[in-house]
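Quick bug: Cytochrome c biogenesis protein CcdC output formatted oddly.
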Amino acid sequence: MNGLAMYGIFFVIFGLVFWRRTRAMVRPVQGSGIKILLPMLFLLPGFSALLQFQLHLKVWEVGVAALIGVLLAVPLIFTTNYEIRQDGKIYAQKNKTFFIALIAVLVIRIALRQFISGIDPISLSMLFFTVAVGYVVPWRIISFIKFRKVKQSQMLGEEIVTIKA
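Here's what came back:
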């Protein structure tokens, strides 16, 4: 697969994530919020690449990729919050800075891909998959915890409207 097709797929996925997040801000979170954790489940097939391909990665390279992912998760974590609106349902809080943070993550990933050279394409893809896991997993787990706090305050009948990091 050439680089242009790879970027095309990447932008389609990014567009779907962007669209889904804008929809989430106008629709209430249903049930116990388990759907917040689903993107972590969608990452599982990517781990099969670890078993199928001969990767030439060092432990420190994977560690740095995971650390970069965790650092990219920080702005997403701080800009993802939940609120109880007048209808008594819980919504993702409208936040323009979240979209700025999401676009920044995209730009940083593209810049890193252009900057890194000398690694075979499969290993490079696995490093960027590790970066993605590094920011999706902490972001979604902490988002779920934030949701559960708002849900718990709703069940207790407290007047807390938002829970921030």
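Actually, after a second look the formatting is fine. The first helix runs from residue 3 to 24. Closing.
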